[in-house]
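Quick note —
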Amino acid sequence: KATMCTVYQCFGPFGEHTVNASWVAVQELKKLGLGSEVDLHVSEVPVEYQTVQRLVPSLWKQYCPLVVVHVGVSGMATTVTLEKCGRNHGYKGLDNSSFCPDSQCCIVGGPDCIDSVIDMESVCKRVTASGLGVAVSVSKDAGRYLCDFTYYTSLYLSHGRSAFIHVPPLGKPYSGEDLGRALQAIVREMLELLDQAEEKIHCQQHLH
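Predicted structure written out below.
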């Protein structure tokens, strides 16, 4: 059966990141592909809260994807980092338009934290065991800036069927090609886990 995955690049250039490693990595992933059974859609988004608030819902509405995987760069990261959850409050940093939400939160009245339905620890272990040559880790804090804001918004809309991957800047230590290979391996594992979960639910419904 055909599955669908939208990989949605969170950020364009911002601050010191005149070339955003996450966009380079996603472009490399697009070249590699995810196999004939996966419909892969890629887009780049400016570092702006209001743009995110508009585009994330339209993405889910337009594609009705199995999962959306957001990718962003972190200047502090030295590994490819799988984010377990998004957080609703604490957004005080100004975006590229010098804007910050008055509420300093993603969704007014939303829960403080939303976890992805994807088991990031399992994805990390599987990818590490595959001998990819790119270090992968798991995090519980996506940083309270546009990455975290985007992730929480997407998790809220999708009831947890989203993921966020932070990549380090280019050359610190990985090339764009390395990061693209890592994204390919990670997203394949995510899709495999989601597929297994769907089959389990289907079997349980059939038994009842």
